[in-house]
Structure prediction request, 227 residues.
Amino acid sequence: MIDSDLRSLICYESDAMVVVNKPPCLPVQSKSGADLESKMGELYTRLHLINRIDQPASGIVIFAKTAQFAAALSEQTKSKEISKIYWAVVGAEPGDKESVLTHSLLKSQKSNKSKAVGKDVSGAKMATLSYRWLGKSQNYHLLWVKLETGRHHQIRAQLAAAGLPIKGDVKYGFRRKNRDRSIHLHAISVTFSDPAIDQQVFLAARPPQETLWNYFTEHIGLPDIAN
Prediction:
């Protein structure tokens, strides 16, 4: 990516922070240096990563500009003052149009995958999310998703456990890959308090320019409020 491409990903900036709309398939961090954090380092001397999203997913990633602002934003994350909403496209219609999912998730280091297991399994962690059905295309359904906990691959694992694997996510049971190896999971909006101006901010980040995402963006519209 050249500077102009990188700058086009920025959806918010202040003295405290930079918020980026990450494209699918670009890792947030990697050992190779071909990742979002390294590329943003070409524009800024030093940034502090506040949140991650999975490599095949897309959407909002937050960076702080100083260690002081990073501490303030991390504290908001811990106290759940930073609220993120995701869109997920699935192939099946959910039985309930609105629901809360709770599972015990166990992460496998070997496969880099989480799965729902019994509550008494050693190492498993409780995971909770809420979802709401937003609409459908000819073959797919769009879900609004909010995390109550932050577990490894949580949305992917929990929706798969509920019989709703995300489009393109063959790792979690969807029947075929997307051509670009992305998955239809997008961190679409975030609400936070900007510590530089002590003001509440709401942002919405457009999904990738792709046929199905374009359909849902046109028919549902981007979020204009936090809920």
The radius of gyration is 17 Å.
